[in-house]
């Protein structure tokens, strides 16, 4: 039995998830992806990394980051994390704790002391429970599992420094690895950033452990997925305009 299945029975959650899924499916049919899929994926990855860093308090103009002039270690860490995801997809469901440690090493280098890289600062028992939920889980719908992975890691902040970058990357790995977004095109982080007050508020609500709090987070997550899907269209249209 899927232990997370009852969450889909919370008011308005299942319809919100279904609508988000439709938005992603539609975006995945954008004609730019036929010949320029790699270019779209690279741009989505860049935008996701810049947004993730901004959510961690390191906000910079996208073009400045693209131009290589931003040396902020949180931004550089987010970029390293984004570049690493393709190589971690297969390992994530087999060794989630190992992957989380690796993500932290990439995200936090230059931000925290080298001794703390990849080392849990808190929440070991709950991280074990989360790892057990991720490992080999082919039952929980991908979007639901990604949402819970993300929220749990935000709540625990188990690593020193930019733990939010790790949380968002782990959720992205879940979406990619479970086939929801196999090419890594959905910049969910952009969705979180464009709705940042809601993102922060719903994450805090989730941390209370109440049904209403969890419902608030799941509805936000569906909205962020939808916004990430819309970003595919924006990127794709831009690519075609330059082709």
From the spread of the alpha carbons, the general shape counts as: globular
- Unreliable stretches, pLDDT < 50, 5 or more residues? none
Structural class, by secondary structure, is: mainly alpha
Number of strands: 0
Strand proportion, as a percent range, falls in under 5%
Q: Main sheet?
A: none
What's the mean pLDDT score? Answer: 97
Helix content: 55-70%
Organism: Actinoplanes sandaracinus
Domain Fido: 95-220
InterPro entries: Fido
Protein name: Oxidoreductase
Describe the structure.
The chain is mainly alpha-helical and 243 residues long. The chain is built from eleven helices and no strands. The protein has helices at residues 13-27, 32-55, 62-66, 73-88, 96-108, 124-134, 142-156, 163-177, 188-194, 196-207, 211-242. The longest helix has 32 residues, at 211-242. It is globular and about 50 Å long. The mean pLDDT is 97. Residues 95-220 form the Fido domain. InterPro entries: Fido (IPR003812). This is Oxidoreductase. It comes from Actinoplanes sandaracinus.
């Amino acid at each position: 039995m899927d232990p997370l299945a009852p969450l889909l029975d919370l008011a308005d959650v299942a319809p919100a998830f279904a609508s988000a899924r439709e938005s992603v499916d539609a975006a995945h049919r954008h004609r730019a992806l036929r010949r320029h899929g790699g270019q779209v994926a690279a741009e989505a990855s860049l935008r996701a990394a810049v947004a993730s860093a901004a959510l961690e308090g390191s906000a910079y103009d996208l073009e400045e980051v693209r131009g290589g002039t931003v040396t902020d270690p949180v931004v550089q860490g987010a970029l390293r994390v984004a570049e690493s995801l393709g190589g971690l997809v297969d390992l994530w469901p087999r060794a989630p704790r190992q992957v989380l440690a690796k993500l932290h090493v990439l995200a936090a280098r230059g931000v925290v002391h080298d001794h703390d890289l990849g080392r849990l600062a808190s929440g070991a028992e709950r991280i074990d429970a989360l790892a057990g939920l991720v490992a080999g889980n082919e039952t929980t719908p991908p979007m639901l599992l990604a949402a819970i992975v993300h929220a749990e890691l935000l709540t625990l902040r188990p690593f020193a420094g930019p733990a939010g970058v790790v949380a968002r990357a782990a959720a992205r790995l879940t979406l990619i690895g479970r086939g929801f977004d196999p090419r890594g095109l959905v910049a969910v982080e952009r969705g979180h950033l464009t709705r940042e007050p809601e993102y922060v508020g719903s994450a805090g609500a989730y941390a209370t452990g109440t049904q209403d709090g969890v419902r608030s987070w799941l509805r936000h997550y569906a909205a962020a997925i939808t916004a990430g899907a819309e970003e595919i269209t924006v990127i794709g249209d831009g690519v075609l305009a330059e082709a």
